[in-house]
């Protein structure tokens, strides 16, 4: 077996973690995952990217402005997490590959960029726009979730086998690896929170209080859709 020694350049490489989602609404499951990944993988920056027009799923019921406002409130005063709202400034679907290409251009060739997601997102990766190019611009970091297996069949299974590496590769290379991280996740979903509010129950303690106060003030989630920014 060959022993790999990290070069000084790899040890100093700046590492940026990105966590995208519809965040409709953001909750402690998302926030814990972002923080634990940052700590576990030693990211220098960890950014949450609310997505504007998700191409892979149904349009969220709340406007981009409401969802982004809730993400900002959730991380207010938390130095470890930041919000990157670039996808909201595009009037077209939020393709991850476009976001990563733009960030690679902005951050330069040497910075390590990691796009983080749950295993439920990885299983659908081959439906994403230009999915094979994602690893040209970034690493993919996947958190295993109970009930979700690592894809092993077909084109995606072959891609997973080719790219699967140990977490150290995130420091060694700027992009190109798939790293799978077992983390204990909080069993919270945005769907569960929306259903609770719609049926008159409180989702308090599943999400930060400032986010809950915003939801109450704007009367979000009382019906299936509140898409306007003014409500
Ligand atoms: P919904 O219930 O509306 O599908 P969600 O809670 O799964 O929403 P999304 O905004 O769709 O949240 O998810 C963004 C990312 O967060 C995905 O990669 C997903 O795997 C991850 N994620 C969702 N819930 C959790 C959780 N409880 N813990 C950790 N990660 C989560």
Overall outline: globular
Cofactors, ions, other ligands: adenosine-5'-triphosphate
| CATH architecture level-2 label | 3-Layer(aba) Sandwich
Q: What structural class do the secondary elements suggest?
A: alpha/beta
Major sheet: order of its strands?
Answer: 3-2-1-4-5-6
Assembly form of the protein:
single chain
Number of domains: 1
Distance between the termini: 62 Å
CATH topology: Rossmann fold
Let me know the CATH homologous superfamily: HUPs
Beta-strand share of residues: 5-15%
Highest-level CATH class: Alpha Beta
Element order: H for helix, E for strand: HEHEHEHEHHEHHEHH
Rg (CA only): 18 Å
Number of helices: 10
What is the secondary structure topology, with strand pairs?
Elements: H1 8-12, E1 15-21, H2 28-41, E2 45-50, H3 64-75, E3 82-83, H4 96-107, E4 112-118, H5 119-122, H6 134-137, E5 139-144, H7 154-163, H8 169-172, E6 178-182, H9 190-198, H10 209-218
Parallel strand pairs: 1-2, 1-4, 2-3, 4-5, 5-6
Helix pairs in contact: 3-10
The site of adenosine-5'-triphosphate has 17 residues, from helix 2, strand 4, helix 5 and helix 9.
Give short descriptive properties of this protein.
single chain, 231 residues, alpha/beta, Rossmann fold, 6-stranded parallel beta sheet, 10 helices, 36% helix, globular, binds adenosine-5'-triphosphate
């Amino acid at each position: 077996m060959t022993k790999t020694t990290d070069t000084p350049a790899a040890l100093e490489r700046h590492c940026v973690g990105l966590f995208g989602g519809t965040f409709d609404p953001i909750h402690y499951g998302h926030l814990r995952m972002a923080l634990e990944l940052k700590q576990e993988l030693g990211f220098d920056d960890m950014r949450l990217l609310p997505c504007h027009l998700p191409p892979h799923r149904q349009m969220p019921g709340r406007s981009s402005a409401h969802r982004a406002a809730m993400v900002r409130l959730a991380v207010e005063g938390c130095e470890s997490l930041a919000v990157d709202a670039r996808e909201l400034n595009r009037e077209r679907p939020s393709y991850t590959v476009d976001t990563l290409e733009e960030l690679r251009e902005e951050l330069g060739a040497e910075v390590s960029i990691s796009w983080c997601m749950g295993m439920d997102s990885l299983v659908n990766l081959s439906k994403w726009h230009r999915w094979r190019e994602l690893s040209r611009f970034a690493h993919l970091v996947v958190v295993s979730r109970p009930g979700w297996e690592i894809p092993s069949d077909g084109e995606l299974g072959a891609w997973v086998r080719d790219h699967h590496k140990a977490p150290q590769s995130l420091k060694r290379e700027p992009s190109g690896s798939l790293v799978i991280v077992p983390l204990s996740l909080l069993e919270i979903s945005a769907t569960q929170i929306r259903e609770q509010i719609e049926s008159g129950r409180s989702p308090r303690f599943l999400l930060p209080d400032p986010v809950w106060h915003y939801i109450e003030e704007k009367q979000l989630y009382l019906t299936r859709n509140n898409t306007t920014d003014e409500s």
